[in-house]
């Protein structure tokens, strides 16, 4: 990790120090995804089977996983794993239930009643990545809030061969519709529908560059599904003062770094001596990590920034807008209110990122690549739309109508004006 | 308008009857926008000036509108127009203030405290279209909620020459940053920033095909700004029973149709005789409309669908997912709960769409082209992100940690596990 003293840097150097890796998505990825999506749109299930055979090496005659396989996976799980998953489910459920939106109703004038009413989405797609780490946590983070919102149909796609732990998690979350399809082809299936996989109105979940690109493409097309978030490599920023434990801070940086060679790690510290301790501790902890190679590759682009005070540290945090922000300072709780741009914040020495990744109850589907400036992580509300409802009485229209007529007139929209005038002139009541 | 009896249609015919116009965005639009965005990114203000001269025929040495011009426009407004705008502002303010999100806090376990905290966006772009109808209402619908949320910087772009009514609306809403730039070039400026126009984190507002395409492109790029909604032609669906007034229903359809030749109008009625009355009434009202040609063009693709009962009507409504839904039935208020997919609903005979377009207080920036299935209209929350915050005590980590360790183990992420284990093993407290 490169160590930089923030006060010594000029504007350009500061920008460079907080830059994310450029050109996330190669042109070749874009071309492949365009071709895959077009093929899925044209050939449906046949295209899905062909890509699954080709990319995953699996002959998928039946893409849908039988419900009995989900139950069998759960039943086969060891009791301690079951208990861990059940605790995670309980916490995720508690926090996401508290987020269920209420109807908002206001009578702005006598006879002018306005409401904002939530509606659960009807049918959503939940993408659970496969790969080296079977993300049972992702299944829970998506399927549980969808269920709490009352989404009728939760359609899970995940690349084969599917790890039993993922099937068990589906069972625990009451998901019964799991399809063994991954990659851009799965996103195409959810966006357009095939004979086997239904078309959904919104697609959730992380994935590799192909999946992320496919999500961006289908959602940008007219009439395409919505998506939860734009996706980029995972990232963590830790702000630690001199009283923090270098052991804890190193552990948090390493838990980020082991995700992926592209994972971003940034530490903000208050002194060169703490930076030195941190580097030593990282080296000590990394040696016997199973994923040490991945972690080393990720840390090679990591940075340690020395800040002069809390104000400077906060300016770095808000300029970077990290996905995960870990505050290990004595005044960590006091700093939270000044954090404007971040996905999820972990406060104090006893709150490692991994608690939020799995089981504290917050959602781990979070904005990366600076998207925290404008996007939130997945919340229960992500599974709703909000409908405006207005009801006027005749008296209400008599009070409000003249203003509407004037404004329609200002905009030169005569039929808009008449929709009011004709009513006000009418004899009915 | 074509009249179709829903019960007589098969599945394919029903789909066709609810189809929106295809291929909204021509390839030529996509190519132009790509070139414009690249040029704005490369040349900044120089590119903006060139496109403004070329497309708008305006020599824009100073793109920023002086604040004194905003005040002057307001001061010059006639008192009745001022009063109408002030009433609209009061209602929009009342309804959007009621939508300010609260912090949600839950202690899911002893020592495990979770919060979801709202944060206002820092800097947003508000696009106000120019064209034949100066949309003073759009300025209010975007600038007022942004202000209520506490957004620090509201950057308005609108094509020159700017109508005085728009400048007056900016003044009324306390906006002081208005730039005379429109089209795809304005979206590029907001996305990338130029010497004059700041880079924003989210872009709001309607626009033509160039603007909509530019918004889709910049938001799909890695690190790009968020956008409020995908945009398509405006649309209204009216459901009227035999007791409804054909005069009112015709007026509502015409107020939609006068927007744009692409505007979509669909009426659901309960009898052929009502359909006939409606067609007669439309013909009667359209004759002396100033924008009759636009309305006729729009209505030529409009449809009147005859439904056998409320259930069938609701199935049509939810299949179409209209931007605006006007319910003129005796039981209109009872139907609302069964409307699952719509942008804004207007209930009963005294609630024409134009009240919501201008002054009832609901937001008129709404999902079109079926996007109501997954997107909401602009609400106060559109100007916030939500940050997750978790705080564990040592006791909390002792209770939760073992489950996190198990789950990390299931996912094969050893450093995630150790971030917990090293803490639990430590002597510090």
Strand content of chain A: 15-25%
Oligomer: homodimer
Largest interface: A-B, 138 and 138 residues
Q: Determine Rg of chain A (CA atoms, Å).
A: 25 Å
**Helix share bin of chain A:** 40-55%
Outline of chain A: globular
Lateral strand order in the biggest sheet of chain A: 1-11-10-9-12-13
Low-confidence stretches of chain A: none
> What's the total count of β strands of chain A?
14
Task: Please write out the topology.
The structure is a homodimer of 429-residue chains.
Chain A: E1 2-5, H1 11-17, H2 27-43, H3 45-56, H4 67-75, H5 79-97, E2 104-109, E3 112-120, E4 123-127, H6 136-149, E5 153-157, H7 164-172, E6 178-179, H8 183-192, E7 202-204, H9 209-220, E8 226-227, E9 235-240, H10 246-257, E10 264-269, H11 272-286, H12 292-299, E11 303-306, H13 310-320, E12 324-328, H14 332-335, E13 344-347, H15 353-358, E14 384-392, H16 394-410, H17 414-425
Parallel strand pairs in A: 1-11, 4-5, 4-7, 5-6, 7-8, 9-10, 9-12, 10-11, 12-13
Antiparallel strand pairs in A: 2-3, 3-14
Helix pairs in contact in A: 2-3, 2-8, 2-9, 4-7, 5-6, 6-7, 8-9, 10-11, 10-12, 16-17
Structural account:
The structure is a homodimer of 429-residue chains. Chain A has 429 residues and is an alpha/beta fold. Chain A has 17 helices and 14 strands. The first copy, chain A, has helices at 11-17, 27-43, 45-56, 67-75, 79-97, 136-149, 164-172, 183-192, 209-220, 246-257, 272-286, 292-299, 310-320, 332-335, 353-358, 394-410, 414-425, and strands spanning 2-5, 104-109, 112-120, 123-127, 153-157, 178-179, 202-204, 226-227, 235-240, 264-269, 303-306, 324-328, 344-347, 384-392. In chain A, the strands form 3 sheets. In chain A, strands 1-11-10-9-12-13 form a 6-stranded parallel sheet, with helices on both faces. A 5-stranded parallel sheet of chain A has the order 6-5-4-7-8, with helices on both faces. A 3-stranded antiparallel sheet of chain A has the order 2-3-14. In chain A, helix 2 (27-43) packs across helix 8, helix 4 (67-75) crosses helix 7 (164-172) and helix 5 crosses helix 6 (136-149). Chain A is globular. Chain A starts with a strand and ends with a helix. The mean pLDDT of chain A is 95. Chains A and B meet through helix 5, strand 2, strand 3, helix 9 and helix 10 of A and helix 5, strand 2, strand 3, helix 9 and helix 10 of B.
């Amino acid at each position: 990790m490169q160590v930089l003293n923030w006060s010594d840097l000029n504007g350009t150097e500061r920008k460079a120090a907080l830059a994310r890796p450029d050109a996330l998505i190669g042109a070749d990825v874009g071309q492949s995804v365009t071709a895959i999506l077009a093929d899925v749109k044209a050939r449906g299930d046949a295209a899905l089977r062909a890509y699954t055979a080709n990319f995953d090496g699996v002959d998928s005659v039946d893409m849908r996983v039988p419900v009995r396989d989900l139950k069998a996976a759960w039943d086969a799980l060891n009791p301690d794993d079951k208990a861990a998953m059940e605790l995670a489910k309980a916490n995720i459920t508690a926090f996401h239930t508290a987020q269920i939106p209420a109807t908002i109703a206001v009578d702005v004038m006598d006879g002018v009643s306005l409401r904002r009413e939530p509606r659960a989405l009807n049918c959503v797609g939940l993408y659970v990545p496969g790969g080296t780490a079977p993300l049972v946590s992702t299944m829970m983070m998506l399927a549980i809030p969808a269920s709490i919102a009352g989404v009728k149909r939760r359609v899970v796609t995940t690349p084969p061969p599917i790890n039993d732990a993922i099937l068990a998690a589906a069972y625990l979350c009451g998901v019964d519709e799991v399809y063994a399809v991954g990659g851009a082809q799965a996103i195409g299936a959810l966006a357009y529908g095939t004979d086997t996989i239904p078309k959904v109105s919104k697609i959730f979940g992380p994935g590799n560059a192909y999946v992320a690109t496919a999500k961006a493409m289908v959602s940008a097309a007219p009439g395409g599904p919505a998506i939860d978030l734009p996706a980029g490599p995972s990232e963590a920023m830790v702000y630690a003062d001199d009283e923090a434990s270098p052991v804890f801070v190193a552990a948090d940086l390493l838990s980020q770094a082991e995700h992926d060679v592209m994972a971003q790690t940034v530490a903000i510290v208050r002194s060169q001596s703490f930076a030195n301790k941190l580097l030593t501790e990282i080296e000590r902890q990394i040696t016997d990590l199973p994923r040490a190679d991945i972690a080393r590759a990720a840390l090679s682009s990591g940075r340690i920034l020395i800040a002069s005070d809390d104000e400077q540290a906060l300016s770095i945090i808000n300029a970077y807008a990290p996905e995960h922000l870990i505050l290990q300072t004595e005044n960590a709780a006091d700093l939270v209110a000044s954090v404007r741009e971040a996905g999820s914040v972990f406060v104090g020495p006893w709150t490692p990122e991994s608690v939020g990744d799995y089981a504290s109850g917050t959602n781990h589907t979070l904005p990366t690549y600076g998207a925290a400036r404008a996007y939130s992580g997945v919340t229960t509300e992500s599974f709703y739309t909000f409908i405006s409802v207005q009801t006027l009485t005749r008296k209400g229209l008599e009070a409000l109508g003249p203003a509407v007529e004037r404004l329609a007139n200002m905009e030169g929209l005569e039929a808009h004006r008449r929709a009011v005038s004709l009513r006000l002139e009418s004899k009915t009541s």
